DNA sequence: CTGTTAGCGCATTCAG
DNA sequence: CTGAATGCGCTAACAG
């Protein structure tokens, strides 16, 4: 029978005594040191399982100055694509005995700063923060911590340490140019009113860049709406009333785009014939709505796994391949932007 | 200027020396002990902020035998209603200086068991696990840990310690009876094929109970599908081909229900006139789809906050009001089940 | 290859 | 009210 795990229950000294070895030796077999004779290793292992010994990772953290804890901050935890990154991270980290400590900033830099400070007191081995915009103090805290820091979900040249993500700018630009190529004349962009962040900002900039493309210059048309189904519906109403003859709406998020799609359905507007719609994020619903939604896909679970890989590498002292790792994106061209001629 | 936070940087002894007090006194002001003279307290506080001292919570955890860490396990982290529970938990816990350590079981009891064991080695102050079905060993590990354990998202009389949730059974039963009341004759239930768990199981049982209602006995009609949009679409196909004259489909999840709704749209089936559809979970999309979806609503962020409240209470030694806390649910009757006559 | 020792940074006695 | 001492459970350095 294995011993119960109780606070203050059985310690390394107990194992040492039962196995008739020193505490150091037990520690060595625990940490996989090579310098242990096979027979003593076996004996120690046997007593460990006999006594049901479980190492106290808090004590180990203090002694070894390595906690095996990774801190992660995302904007919101519920129903968000950012949670998928955490999913990927935890999958990989768990296999390596590491654990994720999670916090949500609610898109607030002040809150992010507070969480960073609070988390650092717990001595994580590494840090993941969403995005590339942070308060000056956050950057300073993170730099001064001397642990690996990964910023994710976007790319930047001005990273605190290492950035793992994809170019929101390039994706938005490419999607816009694709719409141009398909023959849409008047493409408006719906950006997010509140909770502005670098990802949304770069999507807007990417759209503008496409509008300024030298072979296809056209005025940019931008409106701000709430990042919700309702916000998307509002945008459609605006577009239909506009005097600009808008024939395509590029939403900064799928949530708004789906809201827009549903509003078209309510109003009997044919998509894409009367109005084309594109989004960003490739939510699960995007490929199921009618018509299916053109959007930008990113493998976020994969990104989380990649982040974990890089983090583990860094923790083990290996230098990362680069301090700017691009996981890429894919434009998913679906029915919501299919021109009749291209069908 | 505040000192940088660096591993092994400034310790409590440094503060003590600068403030010309003993380490014990610094510790006392840090932990809000009453037995400190106001002037010495102020002096210590001043030096703390002057030196930018940040307590090492790992060391504190070892010494105090309290880590301020709460362990939480949910089935999946990405795009899941369970993440909302975590969101609520972190919000409350962060205000109290506690932190959440998160893991995902992938609906596997074996994986859950492994994570529980791994997490316990980190000496959390409390544990949250999703659902009420766990392996025998998981239950044993948790009981033996002698820390508060909350099981959530459902209710049971056979709880490890404390359960905070709502009755999936009652909700499913009530929703089914509501459909009966509305005059639907042949109500089939679509349950989940894989990833079976207590919540899904109880929804099925609730449906069956409604079918066996003594005033309204009727044969239960149950099929299993994948818990996905596609699975929902499959179920609609099945219902339409059935010889049972099914006039209402009650899906165990909104994901399947929305998939079913979209399939009806593709096939030109009018909802609810030709086929009524109901779901469970009240996903954000449920109130936006056309027609809007009848479903069961649960305030999951609120449930997470409640769980945190109870956990904090328990950690501080106060007994919980009950070991079975019902956060309730609400049937959201929407257009997808509105009978023409009731409009 | 292995036992012993000295901390890791803090909370908490115990005197005073 | 406060300083000094002890130890939480473990790792790592050091002898041997």
Structure, described:
The structure is a homodimer of 343-residue chains. Chain A has 343 residues and is of the alpha/beta class. Chain A has 12 helices and 12 strands. Chain A has helices at residues 12-19, 23-30, 38-51, 57-64, 81-95, 109-120, 136-144, 168-181, 198-211, 229-241, 254-267, 300-315, and strands at residues 69-74, 99-104, 126-130, 149-152, 162-165, 187-192, 221-225, 248-251, 276-278, 295-297, 324-326, 330-332. In chain A, the strands form 3 sheets. Chain A has a 6-stranded parallel β-sheet, sandwiched between helices. In chain A, strands 7-6-8-9 form a 4-stranded parallel β-sheet, sandwiched between helices. In chain A, helix 1 crosses helix 3 (38-51), helix 6 (109-120) runs parallel beside helix 7 and helix 10 packs across helix 11. The radius of gyration of chain A is 26 Å and the shape is elongated. Chains A and B meet through helix 4, helix 5, strand 2, helix 6 and helix 7 of A and helix 4, helix 5, strand 2, helix 6 and helix 7 of B. Strand 2 (99-104) of chain A pairs antiparallel with strand 2 of chain B, so a sheet runs across the interface. Chain B binds a DNA duplex (16 and 16 nucleotides) through helix 1, helix 2 and helix 4.
